[in-house]
Amino acid sequence: MIRLLLSVLVLIAAWPAAARDLRVMTFNVRYPNPDDGPNRWEARAPILIDTIRAADPDVVGTQELYQRQGDAIVRALPHWRWFGRDRRGAHADEHMGILYRTDRLRLIRHGDFWLSDTPDRVGSASWGVDLPRMVNWGEFAQADGRRFVLFDTHFPHRDADAVARTRAADVLIARMRRIAGRLPVVVTGDMNAQPDSAAYRVFVRTLDDAWQHARKRSGPVLTFHDFTGTPDRRIDYVFVRGFHAVSARVATDHRGARYPSDHFPVVVNLR
Q1: Which residue among 147, 189, 220, 246 is the one 20 to 30 A from 211 at the CA level?
Q2: d(CA 226, CA 232)
Q3: Strand 216-218 versus strand 245-250 pairing type
């Protein structure tokens, strides 16, 4: 009987632990515009950091991130790091910064490319856009050894950029296939495109919209609110391949009338 009990205990100890869900956040953090008045970065930073802390993601794809913002976030949050170049290939402008927890994920490799006719040309722009647009990506390993690749981006924002957004989606999907191969994929971003757009249709031909596929959803479906707390459009997304969306939440954290950003972040649990 004792031998049998010992054998059972050995088997239990050797049995692999259930894989932990991957929690992903996409967050346009709003660049530190000195003209934002009461919504300037210095006033929002503690709320934004608390929003990330409360959501407890494993990895965050940000948009509009300046270096001093990324550095402030990781200084305040133990176990966090971030990486990425800015839209012009340096660190003086907006980054598609990817933040991740070093105690939960291991960064295997990373890189970037530009959303243009010449994706490997740093700072390149095409299709009449007013600013260079890019993608930052990283391949990660989870604690159980499983790997995935996350791509983070911010599409052109003007009404006149509808064709550019569609072309950008085409470039991203083509590069995603080349970089990720058969690995599971997460795409985070402010696409500046609503679900009835051609750019959105490019994504959902290949990827799943995590919000739409999640079994459980909470919060408003719309994400851009311009510091009002009342969103009027859905432009922030998490798209996936090789994952099942368990839950999705649009986080509306705030302190009184102060919000961490002019966008609500989207948080998804993936299995």
Answers
A1: 147
A2: 9
A3: parallel
- CA distances from residue 43 to 27, 31, 40, 71 in whole angstroms, order as listed: 17, 13, 6, 16
pLDDT tens for each residue of 199-208:
999 999 999 9
| Distance between CA atoms of residues 174 and 140, nearest Å | 20
The pLDDT value recorded for residue 20 is: 80
% of the chain at pLDDT higher than 70: 93
* Short-list 42, 49, 40, 39, CA closest to 75: 49
- Which pTM value belongs to this model? 0.93
Strands 245-250 and 185-190: unpaired
**What gap in Å lies between CA 235 and CA 154, rounded to an integer?**
10
Which residue in this structure is represented by tokens 């794809």?
A: 61
Cα pseudo-dihedral 61, 62, 65, 67, rounded to 10: -20
Tokens linked to 247: 């839950």
- Residues 167-188 pLDDT 10s: 999 999 999 999 999 999 999 9
Buried b (16+ CB within 10 A) or exposed e, 250-270: bbbbeeeeebbbbbbbbbbbb
Task: Give the C-alpha separation, 266 to 271, whole Å.
Answer: 16
